[in-house]
Design goal:
18% strand; 12 helices; globular; alpha/beta; eight-stranded mixed beta sheet; two-stranded antiparallel sheet; Rossmann fold
Length: 287
């Protein structure tokens, strides 16, 4: 397990991991309700030839959970301040789910800060989202749905993969414990409700991303699980068709977390992509 580091981002005590002593900077951005641990199968592999940073986003994991409105601009601003605090000139961003949506927004706002972009089952590509997440945006019902329980944590994690056997009991216990920390429920509900509603992703959040996908100039790789039950694989083709020269990898027998469920293929795909010179990259589809 990588060693925990802490840095203050404004008033926010922020936990992160870092591995690798050479090469370009890479930042791994986790999804909703997750933490650095969701990248446990990827950090050391990607740190071969790269310096890899893995933060707990504000409101999640062991990072502080201020009483704030967790809008997309607030979360993206936190990511910018994290990069600035660590004196990272620019980096490749690898984002999964919510982290992918933040990586997209960051790339659109700060293109000079991004070398390459990897989107794994990314949010932000369509208003369409699972019924469970839409229901969680409703008053009172959302509070009930995200009430901490081991059984609920296990259910959510297993729904995020194709093969529930890949979810170990210690991960369930860890994320259950994180969900009981002060401010954790408030943060997750705020992220959901500021970015989505019962009708899906909020147009004022999603539409500007979709309209501007064609302006992304950095080399981009899209990875998706064929059996994703959270964000369907059709979203991957929106990214592939809209981001200039983006390449796509779809993993069969895989759910919403390809980095965790299929780490060997994920790591190989990302490393190959990161190690290629920009002029060598061409669109490429495959399963």
């Amino acid at each position: 397990m990588p060693r925990d580091h802490y840095i203050r981002i404004g008033d926010i005590n922020t936990r992160y991991w870092v591995e690798g002593n050479s090469g370009s900077s890479v930042i791994l951005i986790h999804g909703l309700g997750a933490s650095a641990e969701i990248w446990i199968h990827n950090v050391s592999a990607l740190a071969m030839g790269h310096r890899v940073y893995v933060p707990d986003l504000v409101g999640f994991g062991l990072t502080d959970k201020p009483d704030a409105v967790y809008s997309s601009s607030y979360m993206t601003g936190f990511l910018y301040d994290f990069i600035e605090a660590l004196n990272i000139d620019n980096a490749s961003l690898v984002g999964m789910s919510l982290g992918g949506g933040l990586a997209l927004q960051f790339t659109l706002q700060f293109p000079d800060k991004v070398q390459k972009l990897v989107l794994a089952d990314s949010a932000g590509l369509s208003r369409d989202m699972t019924l469970f997440m839409r229901l969680a945006t409703l008053p009172f019902l959302g509070e009930l749905m995200v009430r901490p329980s081991r059984a609920g944590t296990a259910l959510v994690l297993r729904r995020c993969v194709h093969d529930p056997a890949v979810i170990p009991g210690d991960l369930v216990e860890l994320y259950y414990r994180f969900s009981t920390l002060p401010g954790a429920r408030r943060a997750i509900l705020s992220v959901l409700r500021t970015n989505s509603s019962f009708f899906g992703g909020r147009p004022e959040v999603i539409n500007p991303i979709i309209r501007n996908l064609g302006t992304i100039k950095v080399p981009s790789l899209v990875i998706w699980g064929m059996q994703d039950r959270i964000l369907p694989v059709s979203h991957a083709y929106i990214a592939r068709d809209s981001i200039p020269d983006a390449r796509l990898r779809v993993f069969d027998a895989c759910g919403h977390m390809p980095n965790f469920e299929r780490p060997d293929e994920f790591n190989a795909s990302v490393l190959n992509f990161l190690n290629e010179c920009p002029s060598c990259i061409r669109p490429q589809d495959g399963i």
